[in-house]
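Record format v2
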Amino acid sequence: MFAYYLDLALRSLKRNKVLTALMVLAIALGIGASMTTLTVLHVLSGDPMPNKSAKLYYPQLDPRDLDGMRPDEEPPKQVSWIDGMNLLHAARADRQVLMTGGAGAIQPSNASIEPFFEDARFTTRGFFPIFDVPFLYGHPWSPQDDDASARVVVLSRKLNEKLYGGADSTGKVMHIGGKDFRIVGVIDTWRPTPHFYDLMTGNYSDSEGLYMPLTTAVDLKFPTNGSRDCWSNSANTDMKTANCTWLQFWVELDTPAKAAAYKQYLVNYSQQQKSLGRFQREPNVHLRDLMQWLDYNKVVPSDVHLQMWLALGFLVVCLVNTIGLMLAKFLRRASELGVRRALGASRRTVFAQLLVEAGAVGLVGGIGGLLLALLGLWLVRLQPSSYAQLAHLDLEMLAGTFLLAVGATLLAGLLPAWRACLVTPALQLKSN
Amino acid sequence: MELGPILSTLRRHKITAFLLVAEIALTCAIVCNAVFLISQRLERMDMPSGVAENQLVMVQVANIAPTEDAKARTAEDLAALRRIPGVKDAALVSQVPFTNSSSNTSIKLSLNQKLPTLNATQYMGENMIQTFGSQLVAGRDFRPDEYMDYDAVLKDLDLVRKQTSSVIITKALAERLWPGESALGKKLYFADVGVRVVGVVKDLVRPSLFLGDDAAQWSMMFPLRMNGNNANRFVLRVDPTQRHQVLEAAAKKLRELDPHRIILGKKTFDEIRSDFFRNDRAMAGTLVGVIIALLTVTALGIVGLASFWVAQRRRTIGVRRALGATQSNILRYFQTENFLLATIGIALGMALAWGINLFLMQHYELPRLPWIYLPVGAVALWLIGQLAVLGPALRASRVPPVVATRSV
């Protein structure tokens, strides 16, 4: 039966090519625009660590003085050196990492490459296991390296290709900021989106090229990137003691019970620091998991949301357009439908037949929409925003495109099909 | 034109007429808001910087390792830069408008104030007003003897505590802090350090608009001398016709003077502005695309429905023609019908446009839609409607009267 309806539908669609083309075009444009913006939104609001995000938490403390305190104020988004080191060494979580963004001036041994600055991550060793960073060559540095401020470095695959042509460079010595560093590892391609572990250096930045122990970089006074928030005015420029928050601290907690216990630990820690006189405010802590942290920071640009609403509005216009055209098309065939009804076709079969026709329009519109979405995403990638190059269609969105196209068109077909199957057979036969 | 027959016809095609009205209303509402959004973006991209944009170029450098004699090095750098033909002035500054990297501080109007009044940005560097080409609207520029080394102040804040230092602020900041009063001679504080306003410049935009566009002009300039270890942006005021040559020459010169230096970037101010607003430009472009697509789809929808109606009413038209209606009567009939539907759609569309604007105001911090944008959508849709219906209407007017006499 379905095959017969399909045949009828195709015949009918062929009979009025212009109207059919208009419907397909409207659906394709609406679907194309919607899928382009939905894909961008999907990519940007995705989970950067799908296997682990529920176990990763971002503790926040409030070490500020009472000056300028507002009720219900959020604690700072980063931690100070002293608190970071205290929490790190307390090691109350399953894993923990303390870090900041920075830059390293690289003087390549290969004289044909000019010296350049590379974005760096100054971090404790925990970074690699906690974020499941894949290694191409070598391995992370040792815990002793963290303690000893060892001059060791891990490179990204991209930087390793630039400097060493992609060969295994572990064990080699490179000059960074005028000092010698030993390469201990090269990580494989790794770009979590968003750049969740440090939103201060850009929500969708590429991951860094250089990784070195935090203590090493701080001792060598390498330039840091990101934001530094200071209070209680003092001219202290020693980042280890200054009243400034500038480091990111992440913990891995395997169970919700451990997370609750850790939050209590943060409260206790704040209390203890207050009794020691370091903290002045009442304990004010937060322990958001990864996705809550992204949400709180409103990572997805509001323009992307705006574009999605715009595209959905456009889709609605396209659908209203399609309903109108389909209604015109179906009613025009009133006489034909009248004959079919008079010959014994029930309302239901006529309705089903018309919906098959609508579905066929939706499917063709969906294919057109897919092509337009691919074109749209290509246009998005031409844009200069940091996230633009990430806009690619995945399987999920591909399936979504067809579902949306056929679903929307079937919905659009309901009203015209219902109206058309209401025709009174006798009236149609008489008028002809 | 008689509206009676048109209305009675439309009454018999309620659903189709309703769909057409709905489509026009939605299109009108979206177009009004999209045009408004575009104008917002364009206005934002025009934000004044307060500097002599077409005369400025910037070279950003970085040392591979900190230099020992940074102060002497910087003096030498600036002297060499000033000798480049076409350079009128040069300065090493802590930050540059529209380059995103900035230093900011909360300020208060008295020492015992509990909550800070606002957060403003701090520009530092010697000879900055001259080089930026900022326009003083009150007071004076810093005197040469007012400058202190930034390094020295950082080491010992008492330097600025002992002798009240000077500050130059923007007109917008002055009006915000002391509305209706002259800012000259007034004191402001950050933490426990007080500074006195000696001058007011017309504008000086912040490097980064992280506090929103309303705070864009809250800037202060301090008489602090930077060196290569604590600042890395050289700004040159040059002859506008030689901008690109000077930029190349300056970068080359800076590399020559110190080979342990990396040029991080070199840009004219026009490029800086264009990079800063690239997302707004892209958004405006997207919106233009959406408007064109919307109007096209709506126009095609009107063509489709009008064609259907013309075909459906072929016999009626024939009868009217046979009864003496002229071709232009028929043409005008369809035009009026479309005008009527468009007008209803536009009226609904305006209400909807206002509703969408309310939603956007709530979620995207947009201002209220000025009424002036409503006619834009209306005119666009009337025009589109009339253009779209013209083809089918002409076809209708050419229906020969003889159709009336034929059956089927």
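Chain B has a mean pLDDT of 90.
Chain B touches chain A through 59 residues (CB under 8 Å).
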